[in-house]
Design brief:
4-stranded antiparallel β-sheet; alpha+beta; 26 helices
Length: 575
């Protein structure tokens, strides 16, 4: 069976509605099911799943794809991984694939086994350590969550883990590759983590890739992660992400450390994640962006925490995130503050967290004497890094007026400076949902949309979907047909797109409302695409060696060419 046939078989066997429905509450609307988009924050639904066509689409942020794309976006899988998971769920056996060298796959498998064995070892050591269990109780952890979090203990010795894993026939070389051991000054292998409380670090799919260790007494470094390995890269991995990714409907909560995340998770605040001893990176944010476009930053209530918050803000705004900031009292961190307040009160703080504007104005003004022109210009310069990201609202205009007054800068000059520092354009796959550009729409699909809104949606509905369903703008047309040509029944993002098209309608669009001419052009384009696809198929070596398939494609090609010829003749007659 050829690769393309396998993919199609798995796609056809997958219930996209059930797959997406695990993360999104959907309701029936026409031929689609709609709900709140899981990829960006919104109040009214603009996300739809069209199960009979096998795709999802959001009119707010533009996310679009099939079952494979869903797993790749939501779970961070590669295409082969998504194919394997969906095939397994559908009970379809896949032929052996060789995308990567066997030795590489085998190394990863053995490293994962070593990491799992190390986790079992650390957990047994915790059972034997009353001191470690008492430490966890003092930190507010006990009961089933201790097991759920995977707490363990690295013994106070040089090579307890090495000796244990070597007894299980793991090689010393493999243990080094997995980041579990290091070398002493004499060159002997020793445990990387010693005399520490341990925590497993997982990838997005919940597989252990590394460990973190925390001292239970005095000393430095207080926290220590195992080294980067082929499975683990600190700058790309977020602690707690495997638990949090399904709980980001109201945004991701980014905190500073392991215990912040775990305390919040223990109190039911599951959207919390943390970088692993590094500043928040663009890779971290891209991972979050697969699940939400809203980020709440909550770092320690000290000078270092405020600096980290500002640095993260500078990273997140250009990527199109809606950012809110939760500042804690001096000397508190999310771990201690959640323990004091309780989960419900902490959730209330998250719901009312302000946007970043007041924080950055305060930071820009902090320590400056606005009576001095140099300090005013310094504050002005700092603010120009952020003001371009403000939405154009009445509140923003009021803020601009206030800042112009405080900095003794004419409002027109402030406006001019901000326009000169316009926020960088978003990447093609990361549009900010609140400012997303109108969706790309093919010229012929645009004419079908305008024809539908003019009251002729039933005629458009009779057009074979194969003629237009793969063209840009197809989800918008499908939604309009489901709404029986009434744009007011569409989600907000789709309605705005339709109104934009109507406002931009030209005489050319009016001419396109000649239905018969439009349908002929549409079928002609469809025939061109199919003939080209068949030509490529006829040149494919896998087709050439299959006589039955070659015959089948040739018959199909002759039918297409005959229809193309007749259509061309009809066009000449009607001119």
């Amino acid at each position: 069976m050829r690769d393309r046939e396998i993919v199609e078989r798995v796609r056809d066997a997958t219930d996209l509605l059930a797959l997406v429905g695990q993360a999104v509450k959907l309701r029936k609307q026409g031929s689609a099911h709609v709900g709140l988009c899981p990829f960006h924050a919104e109040r009214s639904p603009s996300f739809q799943v069209v199960a009979n066509r096998g795709f999802y689409h959001c009119f707010g942020c533009g996310k679009h794809g099939d079952a494979f794309a869903w797993l790749m976006e939501r779970e961070g899988m590669t295409f082969p991984e998504a194919l394997e998971q969906l095939a397994r769920a559908a009970g379809i056996d896949l032929p052996q694939r060789r995308e990567r060298p066997t030795a590489e796959v085998d190394l990863e498998t053995r490293m994962r086994s070593a990491l799992e064995a190390a986790q079992s070892f650390y957990e047994r050591q915790l059972e034997r350590s009353e001191a470690a269990r008492a430490y966890l109780r003092r930190r507010g952890y006990e009961g089933p969550f201790v097991v759920e979090a995977g707490f363990g203990v690295a013994p106070d010795g040089w090579d307890a883990l090495v000796t244990h894993l070597r007894s299980l026939d793991f090689s010393g070389e493999l243990l080094e590759q997995a980041g579990l051991v290091s070398r002493s000054e004499r060159g002997t292998q020793i445990d990387f983590l010693r005399n520490r409380l341990t925590l497993p670090i997982h990838d997005a799919r919940g597989r252990i890739v590394a460990f973190g260790g925390r001292l239970m007494g005095d000393g430095q470094p207080k926290y220590l992660n195992t080294r980067d390995t082929p499975l683990f890269h600190k700058g790309e991995t977020l602690f707690g992400f495997h638990r949090a990714k399904g709980a980001m409907k109201d945004g991701a909560l980014v905190v500073e450390g392991y215990f912040d995340v775990l305390q919040l998770h223990q109190h039911g605040i599951h959207q919390a994640v943390a970088p692993l001893g590094t500043a928040l990176t663009e890779e971290h944010l891209k991972a979050l962006g697969r699940f939400t476009r809203r980020v709440i930053l909550c770092f320690d209530g000290d000078a270092a925490g405020r600096r980290a918050m500002e640095k993260s803000l500078r990273m997140a705004l250009p990527l199109g995130f809606e950012v809110r900031l939760l500042e804690l009292p001096q000397g508190e961190d999310p771990d201690t503050w959640c323990l004091k307040l309780g989960g419900d009160a902490f959730r209330d703080l998250l719901r009312t967290a302000p946007d970043w504007t007041a924080f950055m104005v305060d930071r820009a003004m902090e320590g400056k004497d606005l009576r001095r022109i140099t300090d005013r210009m310094g504050a002005f310069k700092d603010l120009l890094d952020f003001l371009p990201y403000l939405p154009r609202t009445t509140e923003s205009r009021d803020l601009f007026a206030s800042l112009a007054h405080q900095l003794q800068v004419p409002l027109q000059e402030l406006d001019r400076a901000v326009r000169g520092r316009q926020a960088p354009a978003q990447g093609p796959d990361e549009p900010p949902p609140s400012q997303s550009a109108p969706p790309e729409v093919d010229d012929l699909v645009r004419s079908l949309l305008l024809l539908s809104t003019a009251g002729h949606w039933r005629r458009v509905q009779e057009v074979p979907p194969a003629w237009w369903e793969n063209l840009p703008g197809a989800p918008l047309l499908q939604a309009l047909l489901d709404a029986e040509g009434d744009p007011t029944q569409l989600p907000g993002g789709a309605l705005a797109a339709i109104r934009h098209l109507e406002a931009q309608a030209s005489h050319k669009d009016e001419a396109g409302r000649d239905a018969d001419s439009l349908f002929a052009k549409l079928e002609g384009r469809y025939l061109d695409r199919e003939i080209q696809a068949n030509n490529r198929l006829l040149q494919d070596p896998r087709t050439l060696v299959d006589a039955a398939l070659t015959k089948q494609v040739e018959i199909r090609q002759n039918d297409l060419l005959l229809r193309q010829k007749k259509l061309s003749q009809q066009r000449r007659i009607t001119r």
